[in-house]
Amino acid sequence: MGNAGSMDSQHTDLRAHTMPLKLPMPEPGELEERFVIVLNSMNLPPDKARLLRQYDNEKKWELVCDQERFQVKNPPHTYIQKLQGYLDPAVTRKKFRRRVQESTQVLRELEISLRTNYIGWVREFLNEGNKGLDILVDYLSFAQYAVTFDYESVENNVENALDKSKPWSRSIEDLHRGSNLFNTLPSRRTLKNSRLVSKKDDVHVCIMCLRAIMNYQYGFNMVMSHPHAVNEIALSLNNRNPRTKALVLELLAAVCLVRGGHEIILLAFDNFKEVCGEKQRFEKLMEHFRNEDNNIDFMVACMQFINIVVHSVEDMNFRVHLQYEFTKLGLDEYLDKLKNTESDKLQVQIQAYLDNVFDVGGLLEDAETKNAALERVEELEENISHLTEKLQDTENEAMSKIVELEKQLMQKNKDLDVIREVYKDTSTQVHTLRKMVKEKEEALQRHTHLEKKIHELEKQGSIKIQKKGDGDISILPVVGAAVVSPGTQQLLSASPGTLLEVAGVSTSASPQAPPPPPPPPPPIAAADVPPAPPPPPPPPPVAPPLPGSILPTVIYNPGLAAVKIKKPIKTKFRMPVFNWVALKPNQINGTVFNDIDDEGILEELNVDEFEEMFKTKAQGPAVDISSSRQKVIQKGSNKVTLLEPNRAKNLAITLRKAGKTSEEICKAIQTFDLKTLPVDFVECLMRFLPTENEVKILKQYERDRKPLENLTDEDRFMLQFCKVERLMQRMTIMAFIGNFTESVQIPELIVILALGNYMNSSKRGAVYGFKLQSLDLLLDTKSTDRKQTLLHYIANVIKEKYLEVALFYNELHYVEKAAAVSLDNVLLDVKELQRGMDLTKREHAMHEHNVILKEFINAHEGKLKKLQDDAKISQDAFDEVVKYFGENVKTAPPSVFFPVIVRFVKSYKQAEQDNEMRKKQEQAMMEKLLEQEAMMDQGDKKSPSHKTKRQQQELIAELRRKQVREHRQMYEGKDGAIEDIITVLKTVPFTARTAKRGSRFFCESLGNLFQQSESRA
């Protein structure tokens, strides 16, 4: 053909070809103009074009020569004239036969030219002067007219088909609406001519030509915007050639995967239904699918198209609707017959469709089964809780009895030890008394012996006993008596005290005390011997040791107490986080923070003081904490700790804050007494609910019968704490009762104020006449130089033509607050409140005597009902505003609806700023370049600076072209995207993103292929 050389040249390096005679280089101005023309015809990206502009004049001239050398020989109007000749209704039958013999070859050459020539040739073929797309679509309609007519003749008689009330081609007359080409009534000559063309491959090659045009972004947009092109492509399914029908289905399937293409394809099949007289849409397609069972390629393409047209939409309900359309046409039964097909390709496409199918009944059944199972699980968990409670009560009773018996046993052991000590002391005293009695008897014997001697001497007349008036006894020797022995003389001269001393009896006159032990015996009970005086009083007791003389008593000194109470010292590294939460009211969002105490403290403290403390990083208080910890550790070193140290320390701080005993705390929990235990303390205490490991350790310690006195206060509290029946449920109910009022207020403030105020302030909706999902796409839609977005363009147009609404965002006062609210979460909070109320009612049914639960239910059940009504009103109000903007409530909840507006307003403001800045920069650059151009005009145009001048002129022209913004088409893909999609579909079956097996093969393959095409560009 005429452009074969052009096709071959584009697959080789342009520099490898040299002309036989090198032409002389023209003037720089003419060279630059010819270079710009060549550059525009190459359809290069801006960065590649910018690189070529940097070439010197030699390289530019070489590129111009190479490009002009290999220009195509057949311009577009050559093919257009030939096609118009085939469509001339006035041509004779004989002349038409002679012309149409080469129609297929002309179309093939046209397809090759459209596919291989540079973009400038394609644009020339499609421009307003040639209108190549219109001619090609008209010829396609003419070529398949006979086929459409024959299909109608099968259902109606030929006379009705040729009725004058109908045009010769429904496709042309009904859809072209006033086309000047075929405005005549049908004739048998036209029908015969069409039958002659339909026997050839003209329809197939026409579809290939349209496919080549659609492979360019420019051509794709023209085909999509053409009122009849896609309809004629769809009507080509009536062609008798299975290969043509497969080609059509592949092309239509690829269009479905382009943004906005699915809707166009469905409209084309609606037109197909009207033209071909179908009772249901896709009826002919299913008929071809059943009848062409001997052509596997067509069946694969048909199954692939059905899979894509049904499952490539995001709306699940719409997918089910399309799926049911094919079900009514018998697709499910036919696929069941094809399940044993020998074709692997067809089996893959069938399996891909079945994987994407939505079984609504199965999903509903699964949901109902799941709900029933969850209810059964909840019921069983509640039964287990009650059984566990009973078991815990039994264990507690048995444990209490065991503890009581152990206490009695310990007391008996202590009593036994006391008795043993008493017995030991008594035995010692008995031994001492026996020794004293023995000494007393010996003294009495000596005393008796002395008395006998005295009486003997008195009888002998040697002595005389004289009694005095005071009762004293005096022994006097007798004068003239016989000489006495020295011992007797000594005895007679001794005083009675001395006598007693000799006898071994101690008196008070004795100069020396008897040595201990044994102690002196009691005085002799003799009438003539005076009793011994009482012993001296015992010395005073030793003074007790001074307090703290052995171990210092640990007390909570003021410094330690300040450190443990003062929260900022404990949480100074987290202070910015707390400060951020306190300064952001939208962070509460209907939820109650776990540490409500911290929120109240942050409201009372001075934020500036906290910031100053953080900046200076004061470490004084931290040192006091460490030293105090050392003292506490020294004090409690003799105690057994079963809990984790940090957890035990935090529990001790929490318990000291309450100022209640363990018995009082546990009793208040059992009776739901929120007067004894504030809700803040209950929430803090919920962080210390005993874990399974802690319960196991504590019970094991108790089973080992170890003394409880050895445990720390925290461990003893935890031991008693874990014995409270249904502890988790009781603590949850107490927290729910305490926070009920606060929880009720949060949805009122957020839902009523945020959503209601937004509705009142957004009554003017002129600016929001488009779908909200397109707002985010405004930033993705970029200009050719990728320096601006469609949003910049819209902002500039509004400012220039609609200045009165340019500041529309000033009317949206509460959008950011509304964007921070999740209506689903608010409604979920209301449901949680209802669940909490139900839990409280069930607990009250088990403990009807509890006054606190009864009063709470009576006081707040009405409030909860009102809150539910308010939530319903809020939801209805939101539904109304969503519908007002043309959105679906299911696909646009508040978490999606309002953030879109927030992002749009923010992006819109940024776009206004960018536009202003860009205008200033361009104005400054243009003024500077114009000034330089005026200065250079005064110089020599032949000077080397003339090249720089030309470049500056080109830059000025480019800046001016940027200011004239072109309307951006809907399609945003790259050139060659249609071919890429068709290639991927032939290798990987289409699988929807929400399919049961969750495959991502098709999407990943398509994305990788697009990335490769971009990198090649």
UniProtKB/TrEMBL annotation:
Query: Where is each GBD/FH3 domain found?
Result: 23-451
UniProt KW Coiled coil keyword: yes
Q: Where along the chain is composition biased (Pro residues)?
A: 512-541
Q: Which GO terms describe its molecular function?
A: actin filament binding; small GTPase binding
What residue spans carry the region label Disordered?
Answer: 505-541
What are the residue boundaries of the DAD domain, all occurrences included?
Answer: 971-1003
Q: Which residues form a coiled coil?
A: 331-460
Q: Name one GO cellular component term.
A: cytosol
Instruction: Give the matching Gene3D superfamilies.
Output: Formin, FH2 domain, Leucine-rich Repeat Variant
Its keywords, alphabetically, are: Coiled coil
Keyword Coiled coil: yes or no? yes
InterPro entries found in the cross-reference section: ARM-like, ARM-type_fold, DAD_dom, FH2_Formin, FH2_Formin_sf, FH3_dom, FMNL_animal, GBD/FH3_dom
In this chain the FH2 domain maps to 565-934
Name any Gene Ontology BP term. Answer: cell migration
Signal sequence, renumbered to the chain: none
Member of which family? Belongs to the formin homology family.
Record's PANTHER family?
FORMIN-LIKE PROTEIN, FORMIN-LIKE PROTEIN 2
Descriptive protein name: Formin like 2
User: What gene is behind this protein?
Assistant: fmnl2a
